[in-house]
Design brief:
The structure is a homodimer of 415-residue chains. Chain A has 415 residues and is an alpha+beta fold. Chain A folds into 4 domains: 5-30 and 183-324, MoaB/Mog-like domain (Molybdenum Cofactor Biosythetic Enzyme, Chain A); 32-52 and 155-181, Molybdopterin biosynthesis moea protein, domain 2, CATH 3.90.105; 60-143, Molybdopterin biosynthesis moeA protein, domain 3, CATH 2.170.190; 332-414, Beta-clip. Chain A is 19% helix and 29% strand. The first copy, chain A, contains 8 helices and 26 strands. Chain A has helices spanning 5-9, 13-24, 164-172, 211-221, 236-249, 266-271, 306-324, 385-388, and strands at residues 32-36, 49-50, 60-61, 65-68, 78-86, 101-104, 116-119, 123-126, 129-132, 142-143, 154-156, 177-181, 185-191, 195-196, 207-208, 225-232, 252-256, 277-280, 283-284, 288-294, 297-302, 332-336, 349-357, 373-376, 393-397, 409-414. In chain A, α2 packs across α7 and α4 packs parallel to α7. The two termini of chain A are 39 Å apart. At the A-B interface, α3, β14, β15, α4 and α7 of A face α3, β15, α4, α7 and β22 of B.
């Protein structure tokens, strides 16, 4: 008999991830909803937004100063009668007579006839007149309508995830609301008779249920709307009932536990007869995996060890979920290894927990330094969830590599 | 007379930013509140959290397999009577007799007496007995209590901003809640008779109020709790009333507009008599600035041009606010300039809007590429808010530089 048959027939990581991506890509076509511009921060724009107005809306002053005709200040110094003042918010539609000046504030309309602004610093004002020391040419310190954006021009493109600078532009053109994609909705079901809620006293053999809380946090942090987090015992009837509620409410369902080779594998036992593919992926942690479509809803079944669950999420779900939510790609870097990896299993791609080594500066803001290296933190065990808190990347050790010396270049995935 | 007296006496950017940082640093000592672990995502831990339990809590199996005494499998193949099964969640406290095996699931307790686990792949099971093909040494596939973290050990340190991996660890040790700092609370007051709300029809001389929405979005995106966004006309009594409400509710207040050299500078007119420092900072955009402490609350007064407001926020407020909220530093890189900067004002540090040039890959997940260069997008004008939507960095042109050729190294600040 083969001593490790599972790893011989196990699917490669990239191949399995492709299957998941194929299943989830249709979630790009989600319903569109209108939200107010202030509420649109972080949401993904569903359509191109074109400006309904010119910006600037009207010809206005770039400075606090005096609007004049350039011809009136061709020879300086010159003293001109002051005919009034235009504050920001004034209509400013009375034409300016030749050889006069009118005081204008930054952003105030420039009266018809005037074609340049003399900054307040270049002017002596006196009772009813101004003496201009330095002339200006036509157009100086004048903002023409539409020079920022014209009515009808593209302002923010479909698919953009809206950051503060987009919100600023959408607000500046006066849009009350914008069309955004509804977020991807996910449901989480954890399984296992041994799991109890936080704050309970543990009886022998029990552990705290962390996977539901951890998966919900990971989904939320990647733009997904978590519609439910439920826990099932190893009773198939209970799991089936929770699954039905989850597929009714969510675009994608995540389960943890019950997918391995034990006697009580509730997830596999319920989902395999529904067409689920259950088997080994050639990775560590996170080898046993399941993938099913139930009532048209993809169900990703991760193993129950806490680190296996989180690494499965990072490797299989996070890249496509960020893509669907319009968030920047997961950052994958190549860096030298600070410490050696003494052993890595032949035939399994290993994702070790690592910490970036980067020079720190106390200065604010500091010049950013690229990380210089990555060190392995915590062991390879799939139960070392506390150790994972000390990591900021996964170190991706290829399946065919069985050890790595310090200094070797490795790929790291940002957590 | 001096043609540009303001720029001669203007304060350097770094000097003014230091003044703001000194005023805001005391906000690091904010009240502490307890939140449930699921709600703690993104919050900043106020105290060190130590594990209340050992992880693993009890000695358990790393595999689906058979727990035995290593001495019983020193010579293989060997056939042992099967005395039962321990599922995850079982107490598993009955000692295992010598020369017997008991089936154990991953995570299940290992009975006293057993000291290793034979993976299911290495075993033939038969009616009431198991034949083991390959022996294992004491400790193999056994997870000892406390090998991940010991009760009393530091789990997550004070000051950490909690990400999904921290949430996972806090959930795994069964903590129902953790102490976090209350977020920094900010209030925003925009000013100006010319501003109207989104969705209104503009009368001549009016523009849409974008600064309130944009500042609120920028604050939210940097971990700050925006408690109010209000608008004041240029009436000092109205501004004074809104200011009083803002300082009563917030840790820091941001105003926009009313700080320049015009005739109707409501912010300066109200705050300068209260001890506010108003003057020019040697930068473009964002030159006119004001800083006041009202009832013990710092009030940062930014100029009203939309780009001036946003650049002021990025340069003066964002680095310290991220530091106070425990978020990663603003990223500042040095990159070559893709296109030339033909003119930059002598004596003023200029923050141009730029876009990173980086090779894009369609692959998911893709190897991250560092940006290769930065190109100037949009003009330098402080009214070009639509153009700012196309930028992803600010290009920081030093005060003494008046032009830059393509290829010159520049510092860029991530937006």
């Amino acid at each position: 008999m083969n001593s490790r048959p599972a790893s011989v027939s196990a699917r490669p990581v990239d191949d399995y991830r492709d299957s998941i991506e194929q299943l989830l890509r249709p979630l790009a076509a989600r319903p569109v909803e209108a939200v107010t511009v202030p509420d649109a921060l972080g949401r993904q724009l569903a359509d191109d937004v074109r400006s309904p107005v010119d910006l600037p809306v009207f010809r206005n002053s770039a400075m606090d100063g005096y609007a004049v005709r350039a011809a009136s200040v061709a020879v300086t110094p010159v003293t001109l009668p002051l005919v009034g003042v235009v504050a920001a918010g004034n209509a400013g539609q009375t034409p300016l007579p030749p050889a006069t000046a009118i005081k204008v504030m930054t952003g105030a309309p420039i009266p018809p006839g005037a074609d340049c602004v003399i900054p307040v610093e270049d002017v002596h004002s006196d009772d009813g007149s101004v003496t201009i020391e330095r002339g200006r040419g036509a157009g100086e310190f004048v903002r023409e309508p539409g020079t920022d954006v014209r009515a009808g021009d593209l302002l923010v493109g479909a698919g953009t995830t809206l950051t503060p600078r987009h919100i600023a532009a959408l607000a500046a053109v006066g849009l009350p609301s914008v069309p955004v994609f509804r977020a991807v909705r996910a449901a989480v079901i954890t399984t296992g008779d041994e799991l109890v809620d936080a704050g309970s006293t543990l009886r022998p053999g029990q552990i705290y249920n962390s996977n539901g809380i951890a998966l919900a946090a990971a989904l939320t942090a990647n733009g997904v709307d978590v519609v439910s987090v439920a826990h099932s015992t190893d009773d198939p009837a209970q799991f089936r009932k929770l699954l039905s509620a989850a597929t009714g409410a969510a675009d994608v369902v995540f389960t943890s536990g019950g997918v391995s080779k034990g006697d009580f594998e509730v997830v596999k036992d319920v989902l395999a007869p529904l067409g689920g593919q259950f088997g080994s992926v050639a990775m560590q942690p996170g080898g046993p995996q399941g993938l099913t479509v139930v009532e048209g809803v993809p169900v990703l079944s991760f193993p129950g060890n806490p680190v296996s669950t989180m690494v499965s999420f990072e490797v299989f779900a996070r890249p496509i979920l960020r893509h669907l939510s319009g968030l920047p790609d997961v950052e994958i870097y190549e860096l030298p290894l600070h410490n050696e990896v003494a052993r890595s299993p032949q035939g399994k791609r290993q994702f070790l927990r690592g910490r970036l080594i980067r020079p720190k500066s106390g200065e604010l803001p500091a010049l950013h330094r690229y990380p210089e290296a990555v060190e392995v933190v915590s062991g390879p065990g799939s139960h070392l969830i506390a150790g994972m808190a000390w990591a900021d990347v996964l170190i991706d050790v290829p399946a065919e590599i069985t050890s790595l010396p310090a200094g070797a270049a490795v790929r790291v995935w940002s957590l």
